[in-house]
Design goal:
The chain has 430 residues and is of the alpha+beta class. The protein has one domain: Cytochrome p450. It contains 18 helices and 12 strands. The strands form 4 sheets. A 5-stranded mixed β-sheet has the order 1-2-8-5-3. α6 packs parallel to α18, α12 packs antiparallel against α13 and α13 packs across α15. The protein starts with a helix and ends with a strand. The chain binds protoporphyrin IX containing FE. Protoporphyrin IX containing FE (HEM) binds next to α13 and α18.
């Protein structure tokens, strides 16, 4: 009992330190937090079993259930029923097809150029805010296409408002009570209503639009007409889910990339030169940025924005040689696995040559590297996010070099945040 309360306090005070300490106990680490039985899995083979081979024995768990119940509803992100989830995934998939990414890449480039043009030599830039703005632009453009420009302010405000209605990760008894009686503060209700009005307005526009648009929202509306079953509420839910899932992680990835560059001025020059060699950026330029792509792979290894995943066993199940009882919360950490010396020699060293052709695929298949998760719930936005981060970095490094005021440490929330504002002085490339 004493141990389980101690775990709760330690996890809250020093989440990463506690994870690290637990991981030293072995590959299966059972422990308790309050009355909940937890299991930290500390080996890629075991992680793969949970996410892929035995995924039917697991659900995403309480946090996602609460997100679904409180305001997001059933969506790709929140649906636990495998059949409904599969259908959502099938309907949304065409919007993430490589030929669609080609269209989005232009929007990504334009938003990075707009940001870059707004800086002057010596400007002090709040990196987190700047990267959020770029990634909001990119996900907004993919969802709402050309109409984003008309509604830019509204989209940005809606997304930023979403941040304020975050569901807390841990439901204290007080939070549970409020949720049980359906209580939502007036400010939250207002934000949700504004978001809903905006999305429903966009859906109505798509339905009577004479000019066919080819954005994601149009695809969801058309999917409804063709397959007879995606109603307006679901379209709203899918749209809101993509807004939630689609910008913060990429913004964090870009923020950590700037931190990594600050520590390696020679690398800034090298990647800057790679970007400058591209005279005009087009979709087929991406393969001509191989070092920038390898750099981002290494950033996602050492600073994975999704730093841990959680599942709940819905039945008794064997993982490795151990029985995992129903109800156990299983934790798998990208942060720990990506820094495990058994799979990564000199794991703390930033070395982009680890990503020479052929290596990444193997690491991902074996789950020693899984920044985007795995199995049927693998991130649908993986290629979108990778392209986005490469394009944005290249566009910024074409003109600017970064020097941080102070490097940040880690603040692990649901995603991996810096523990202080990241402010960089930008200087123009001569
Ligand atoms: C660096 C950027 C990103 C990272 C690190 C990331 C990471 C992840 C991870 C780890 C998962 C799996 C969660 C789990 O299994 O519990 C996930 C799921 C998801 N991501 Fe991403 N993501 C990123 C960007 C994006 C973008 C740009 C979009 C959309 C435009 C997106 C949309 C989604 C959706 C909808 C899911 C749920 C998929 C499903 O359950 O079928 N993500 N993401």
């Amino acid at each position: 009992m004493f141990e389980s309360i101690r775990n709760m306090v330690r996890l809250q005070r020093d989440t990463l330190g506690t994870f690290r300490e637990l991981s030293r106990r072995g590959d299966h680490v059972f422990f308790r937090v309050g009355h909940v039985r937890m299991l930290l899995l500390n080996h890629p083979v075991l992680i793969k079993q949970v996410l892929v081979t035995k995924q039917k024995s697991f659900e995403k768990g309480a946090y996602i259930r609460r997100l679904k119940k409180n305001w997001l509803g059933s969506s790709l992100l929140t649906e636990e029923d495998p059949a409904i989830h599969r259908r959502s995934r099938r309907l949304a998939q065409p919007a993430f097809h490589p030929h669609r990414l080609e269209v989005y890449a232009q929007a990504m480039r334009e938003s990075a150029v707009r940001l870059s043009d707004s800086w002057k030599d010596g400007t002090e830039v709040d990196i987190s805010a700047a990267m959020e703005q770029v990634t909001i632009d990119a996900v907004g453009a993919s969802l709402f296409g050309a109409s984003l420009h008309r509604n830019k302010q509204e989209v940005t405000e809606a997304i930023l408002a979403l941040l304020r209605i975050r569901t807390p990760l841990v439901a204290t008894p007080w939070v549970r009570l409020k949720e049980a009686v359906g209580y939502k503060p007036a400010a939250h209700r207002k934000v949700i209503k504004r978001l809903d009005d905006f999305i429903y307005g966009m859906i109505a526009e798509r339905k009577c639009d004479q000019m066919p648009s080819d954005d994601l929202l149009t695809m969801l509306v058309q999917a409804r007409e063709e397959s007879g079953g995606f109603d307006e509420q679901q379209i709203r839910n899918e749209t809101a889910a993509l807004l939630v899932a689609g910008f913060e992680t990429s913004a964090l990835g870009l923020g950590w990339a700037i931190q990594a560059l600050d520590a390696q001025p020679a690398l800034q020059e090298e990647l800057g030169a790679e970007a400058t060699n591209l005279s005009e950026f087009a979709w087929d330029s991406l393969p001509r940025l191989p070092r920038t792509a390898m750099f981002m792979d290494e950033v996602l290894r050492l600073y994975p924005p999704a730093w841990s995943l959680q599942r709940v066993a819905v039945e008794d199940v064997e993982i490795g040689d151990r029985r995992v009882p129903r109800g156990t919360i299983v934790l798998m950490s990208q942060f720990l696995t990506h820094r495990d010396p058994r799979f990564w020699p000199e794991p703390e060293v930033f070395n982009l040559d680890r990503w020479a052709p052929g290596v990444r695929k193997k690491a991902s298949e074996e789950f020693s590297y899984f920044p985007f998760g795995g199995g049927s719930r693998v991130c649908i936005g993986e290629h979108f996010a990778r392209s986005e981060m490469i394009v944005v970095l290249a566009m910024l490094l074409k003109k600017w070099r970064f020097k941080l005021q102070e490097r940040a440490g880690f603040q692990p929330k649901i995603t991996l945040h810096p523990d202080r504002p990241v402010i960089a002085r930008v200087s123009a490339v001569n």
